[in-house]
Model the fold of this input.
Amino acid sequence: MEYYAQQQAMAGAATRAPVSGYYDSATGAFVHSGDAGAAKLASPPGPPVGVPVPQVRAGSDEVYQLVQDLRVMERREHALLELSKRRETRSDLAPILWHSFGTIVALIQEIVCIYPQLSPPPTLTANSSNRVCNSLALLQIVAADRETRPLFLKAHIPLLLYPFLNTVSQDRPFEYLRLTSLGVIGALVKVDDAEVINFLLQTEIIPLCLRIMETGRELSKTVATFIVQKLLLDEMGLAYICQTADRFYAVSSVLAKMVATLQQNPQPSIRLLRHVIRCYLRLADNARAREALRQCLPECLQAAADPQMHPEPVAACLGEDPTAHRHLLQLLQALSLR
Done:
């Protein structure tokens, strides 16, 4: 926390004007304010009146100018939004962001300057949330890039996102902030990298993801479960979670609660259910976890594999997803329950 306080002091008072949307980390798309599910926000005002905006040519020159504008507080909000829009069209944007002078510091300033708004009573606004989500969208590019990912980890930048993951408010600005922060971690684990897994296992990422899996909204639950799944798929991650009974039961109990919640939903999320089953299947690869799962696997998953059973929500959901159904059958076979 002392480090965070130092970063806050360095950040100063950032301008918090509205931006036009938020970054959906699960779909990889920038959602504009007119899109379904996005907050109803005003269009971005652009740079304040009287602040000159350099005239630049399209293409590389424009991107370089926008990156330079990140160092100018009056132009930063506009630059964040425009660079977020261009993140899919520039394969070299990550090294440009990382190696350009002052850029990563500017993005960190955007993150740490809203920490005070997270403290009870929370005062985070939609405008502040969307602005920092644009910064996180650019950091996600850095996290996903093969060249800059090791540098990103070495600088311990993911730890700066944990205060966002630690929030519990269900208000939309907080949910967008958690979702986009999860997207940065998701970008790290998406590529099989032992260095990433080793780094994350030394942090509090698993407890943070478990709480979101239990209490978050559907999209955040899905991304958090994906992160836990990717950690489990690595041998280090599986060994870590199954090393103690407390860790195993922390994960398995949250998975069981998620299944119960999905069972109560008339239209459960197929994608979320697929990730949950995949986590169970991977846990079954550990001998001690396999024995425990025989006793604590939710009954509705055992029944859902029987085609003679009445199609309840989970069973009906599995009928629409052959991959998830196949994984469930593999799980039941591994547990000698079928």
